[in-house]
Structure formats: structure tokens, C-alpha cells
Design brief:
Strand order of the largest sheet: 2-1-5-4-3
Largest sheet: 5 strands, antiparallel
Radius of gyration: 49 Å
Distance between the termini: 74 Å
Number of strands: 12
Helix content: 55-70%
Order of helices and strands: HHHHHHHHHEEHEHEEHHEHHEEHEEHEE
């Protein structure tokens, strides 16, 4: 932009004003020519330095008109004195020139120091060095005045003037044209501070994301900031929407589609506007819309795409605007990354909410379906028992009343029918038991598993005696559970161990081991064992591995065991080898 070119031009002129005198000495030295006109030219150039310095101050600080006119008048008067009187100047003209230098550079020192305290990062460091350079120069000309008033101190003052002149040149160099490595070090320090202010992933909201950016803008641009506006692209309305609390009026939408913003958006390049007579009408209207004298616009963008604009309204701009733009661009890019991450997290959060809602709906539907199935099984089983009892009773009545009229085949048919009715009644009874397992769960209370096992022994006393079985157990714990379900669980497992016995007398051992947050129970027998491929199938309702003629039962016992364990949030599984017995394991949380 033209504004940045103006700053670079004035910095060049300021350095040129200080170097022309030295350049004239250098040229005379290498050529040997007198060049009488070059020395006065160098002196006139040095006289312009305070005024040129004041022009640089005017880019970032309001210079009072009185100071500006006094410095301009001092430059003109000093030129006239130099032209009329020649060198060396008399005492009074010398003191006038010294006063002019002290006024111009003294005010510059104050402005640079004020600017340094109101900004951070690269700009603060550069303003500090610029302030130091002007301060050294002020002291140099004060010593020059002392040298005129007190000639006897010339030996000391000349040495000091030479040292301070070198210091002024060095600090001006570091302030106005510092090496890249030094600017990079300053920039990294400020960037580390900015990154430290960024919110954690679990604290990201638009307000928390924008807060470090607002703070960073204020630190970089200083007290000249009037307002900070953040406009983000809204996909729904297809336009830029402000996301700040500024009381500044919002510009018409068409402003964002102007050539200026189109260029910033597409090129991802920042822009500086400063109110001046040379500004184009379009830019003038833009500044009037925002009611500001200066404006910095930085794209909030990643390498892939632009998300919005950072618009900074200023009372003044910066002397080192390029450094400001580089730092602000980094801040804006980090903000864009934060916004993208926030959008991804929000999208994932919404997807999780949708999934949770779907799961909740499906869970309710599944629970309703299960309840209906349980009710159906209970009602169907209950209602089917009455006609089965009627059929069985009438068949037995026919068999007893008409026994002499039936031949062997007829009696066999009736026996088959009665047996089928009895088996059907047993199946229905087991279905009722299975449906009650889940519908009649009691509140979990501490249950002494040792006492439960003793009760099972009493219930199965006749079967144990008939099989001549031996049941041993280790010390069993007391765990919170439903006592009725645990009793049913142990009874079914011990009954199976008695039923599926081999040639040897049954030996059943029950143990319990605590592992982390659960108890692992084991019921081991020396029965016929199970083929490995059937170890999962045996827990399916009505799944039998043997014919009814060999082992009685309906095949629902282990399914009831599995349901009882699952209601305790545990697991049930079996380990077995044919002919070597089986071990049934189940877990109960502590």
C-alpha cells in the first residue's frame, strides 16, 4: 500500500540526512577533490533530521500542531542561519540550532517511549532502540552547545560526542533496520506468549477462542486501537457475520463484496488503510463507514481456506506496520486453526448426541419389545397349562375307564399322548421360570454364598444320595446379589453335575477367587464333559446335546443360569473336555 511506501521513504530520508555529511568526507578522502559544495549540503541535510524524525512519529502518534510548526520553523531558521553565517556558527545561532534539535528529537524520544510502553513484541523492541537513538542524538547536540559555551571542555565533549554518535547510529540501525535474526527472536517471544493464552480443547468456545486474539491485537497495536471487529463467514446466510461486542456500526453487506475485501479474502493478504488526501474514493468511503482514521484488515485463514476477517480500527497506525502485520497474521492463522478444531469438535459432539438419541430410542423400543415378549411368554405359558391339564386328565380317564376295550396299540397311543402332554407341561413350566428370572429380580443385598450352597445341598439331598456324590467347597464370600437367583444358579449347576455323570461317582467342587472388582466362582465336576464346539450352544434356550431318553430335562437350565448371572452384570462360561469333566465359571461384581 502507498502508506507503507511513505513510511519507508521517510525512514530512508531520515537516515540519508544523517549520512550525507559522512558521505561527503568519504568522497573527499578517496578523490582528493575539494568539493566545496558537498560539505554545506551535508550540513543542511543533518539540519533536516529532527523534522524528518517528527514525521516518522506522526505515523503512530498524534503530534501537536504547535510542536510540528515549531520544529518546521526551527528547521527553516537553522537552514537560513547556516546559509547566511556559514560554519562555524556563532554562539547564538549554534544555541538556536541545538534548541531545534533538542525540541524535535526530545519529543521523538517521548513519543517512542510512550509507543514502546503501549505495544509489545517486535514493535516494542524497535521503538525502544529508536527512542535510545534519538536520546543519544539529543545528548550529542546538547554537548555541542556546551562545547560552544564552554570551549575549555572541548577535549572531553568531542570524545563524548564521537562515542554517543556511534551509539546513536547503532541504536537507529537496530530500531529502523534490524537484522532478520533479531526480529525473528523478538517475534518468537511474542508468539510463545500468545500460544500460552490459547484455551484448552475442553474450554473452546467462540468467546475463549477470540479472547487471546483481542488481547494480542491490543498488545501489538497499543493504545491507538479504537475497536476490534471479527467477521466470520456464515454458510447459512452466505455472508460475513460479526462476532464481537463492538458498538461500532456494522457496514452494509455490499462492502464485504467490494474489490478491497475480495482481494484480502482470495489472496489471504493483510491490508492497511490510512486516511489521507491521496486515498481513493472507495477507500475513503470504507474508512468513513467505520468512522475511523486508520484500519488494518487481516484474513483469519488457514493454508486451505479463509474463515473470516480481523478488522482493527485505529486512531493511528504503526511506524513498523510490516512487523505488525506479520505478527497479526500469525495470530489470525492460529485463531483459524482453533476455529476449525472447535467446529470439528462441535460436529463430533452433535453426531454423538444424535447417536445417543438414536440409541435411546432403540433402547426404549427394545425394552418395550422385550416386555411384550415376556408378557406374551408368561400369559401364553399360563394359559396353555389349563388345556394341557384337561387333555392329560381326559387321556388318563380314558385309559382307566376303557382299559378293557383297548388293545395294546391303543394303550400305547394313549401312553404317547400322556407323555407328550407331560413333557409339554414341563416345557411350559420352564418357560414360566425363565420369564420370571428377569421380571422378578429383587433388590441386591449382601448374600452369604456359603449358606446358599448349604440350602442347595438340602434341596438336592435325595439326588446327591442316589448318585453317591461328593460335594466339597472352599470358603465362599458374602456378596451383594439377589438370593433367589443365586440359589437357582447353584441348584441348576449342581443338578447338571449330578445328571451328566460318568461311570465314576460324581465329585463336585465349588470355589471362589476375588480378582480386582469381581468374584470368580467355579463349579467343577468329573462328569462326561462337553465337546469344545458346543461350549457356547449349551447356554441357548432349549438347546440339548443328548436325547430325552438318556438324560431327562428340557434344556433350559443353563439358559436360566446365564440370565441370572447377566442380571448381576457378570459373565458365565464353561471349560470342558469330553470324558474329563466340566468347570462352569461365573463372575459377580464386588
Amino acid at each position: 500500500m502507498r502508506y507503507r511506501t511513505d513510511i519507508q521513504r521517510d525512514i530512508f530520508l531520515m537516515f540519508l540526512s544523517l549520512s550525507v555529511a559522512q558521505l561527503s568526507v568519504f568522497i573527499r578522502g578517496i578523490t582528493g577533490l575539494p568539493l566545496l559544495w558537498l560539505a554545506p549540503l551535508g550540513q543542511l541535510a543533518v539540519i533536516a533530521q529532527p523534522f524528518l524524525m517528527l514525521r516518522l512519529v506522526g505515523y503512530f502518534h498524534e503530534v501537536p500542531p504547535l510542536i510540528y510548526r515549531a520544529t518546521l520553523g526551527g528547521m527553516v531558521v537553522s537552514w537560513l542561519l547556516l546559509i547566511v553565517s556559514g560554519t562555524p556558527l556563532p554562539t547564538v545561532p549554534t544555541l538556536i540550532v541545538v534548541a531545534y534539535f533538542v525540541l524535535g528529537n526530545g519529543y521523538a524520544v517521548l513519543a517512542f517511549v510512550s509507543g514502546a510502553f503501549s505495544s509489545v513484541g517486535v514493535v516494542r523492541q524497535r521503538l525502544r532502540f529508536a527512542a535510545a537513538g534519538s536520546a543519544f542524538l539529543v545528548v550529542v547536540f546538547v554537548l555541542a552547545g556546551v562545547n560552544v559555551v564552554f570551549p575549555t571542555a572541548r577535549t572531553v565533549t568531542l570524545s563524548l560526542i564521537q562515542v554517543l554518535s556511534i551509539c546513536a547510529a547503532l541504536t537507529y540501525y537496530l530500531g529502523f533496520v534490524p537484522p532478520d535474526w533479531l526480529k525473528l527472536a523478538w517475534k518468537h517471544a511474542e508468539l510463545r506468549y500468545y500460544l500460552h493464552q490459547l484455551p484448552r480443547s475442553d474450554e473452546r468456545t467462540l468467546e475463549n477462542i477470540f479472547a487471546p486474539l483481542y488481547q494480542g491485537v491490543t498488545r501489538v497495536m497499543g493504545t491507538s486501537v479504537v475497536a476490534v471487529r471479527i467477521a466470520l463467514w456464515d454458510e447459512n446466510s452466505q455472508q460475513l457475520v460479526f462476532h464481537d461486542t463492538s458498538k461500532q456500526p456494522e457496514p452494509p453487506t455490499e462492502f464485504f463484496f467490494s474489490h478491497i475485501f475480495q482481494h484480502i479474502w482470495q489472496q489471504q493478504s493483510p491490508m492497511v488503510l490510512y486516511k489521507s488526501a491521496r486515498l481513493s474514493p472507495e477507500y475513503q468511503r470504507l474508512l468513513e463507514t467505520f468512522n475511523t482514521r486508520a484500519m488494518v484488515t487481516v484474513p483469519i485463514a488457514t493454508h486451505e481456506h479463509t474463515l473470516g476477517l480481523l478488522i482493527i480500527l485505529l486512531e493511528h497506525t504503526s511506524l513498523f506496520v510490516d512487523d505488525d502485520l506479520r505478527l497479526l497474521s500469525i495470530f489470525a492463522q492460529q485463531t483459524a486453526i482453533q476455529l476449525e478444531n472447535h467446529a470439528l469438535v462441535e460436529k463430533l459432539y452433535r453426531q454423538n448426541e444424535d447417536l445417543e438419541q438414536i440409541v435411546a430410542v432403540r433402547t426404549v423400543e427394545l425394552q418395550r419389545s422385550n416386555e411384550e415378549l415376556k408378557l406374551f411368554a408368561y400369559v401364553a405359558s399360563h394359559d396353555l397349562q389349563e388345556p394341557l391339564r384337561t387333555i392329560s386328565s381326559y387321556l388318563q380317564l380314558i385309559e382307566s375307564r376303557y382299559q378293557d376295550k383297548l388293545d395294546d396299540t391303543g394303550r400305547e397311543f394313549i401312553a404317547f399322548a400322556v407323555d407328550g402332554a407331560v413333557r409339554m407341561k414341563a416345557l411350559i413350566s420352564d418357560i414360566l421360570i425363565y420369564s420370571r428370572v428377569e421380571t422378578e429380580v429383587n433388590k441386591f443385598v449382601p448374600v452369604n454364598f456359603q449358606e446358599v450352597l448349604d440350602e442347595v445341598r438340602q434341596l438336592l439331598e435325595a439326588a446327591i444320595a442316589e448318585a453317591e456324590a461328593t460335594i466339597t467347597c472352599e470358603s465362599l464370600p458374602k456378596v451383594k446379589a439377589d438370593r433367589r437367583l443365586i440359589l437357582q444358579l447353584f441348584q441348576n449347576l449342581v443338578s447338571n453335575a449330578l445328571k451328566y455323570r460318568g461311570a465314576c461317582k460324581p465329585e463336585i467342587h465349588i470355589s471362589a477367587t476375588q480378582k480386582k472388582a469381581e468374584w470368580v466362582f467355579a463349579v467343577r465336576d468329573n462328569g462326561i464333559g462337553i465337546e469344545p464346539q458346543y461350549l457356547e450352544q449349551i447356554f441357548v434356550v432349549f438347546r440339548r446335546l443328548h436325547g430325552r431318553g438318556k438324560y431327562e430335562g428340557t434344556g433350559i437350565g443353563l439358559a436360566i443360569c446365564k440370565k441370572a448371572v447377566e442380571l448381576h452384570r457378570g459373565r458365565l462360561w464353561a471349560e470342558s473336555e469330553p470324558g474329563k469333566g466340566s468347570t462352569f465359571f461365573f463372575t459377580i461384581p464386588v
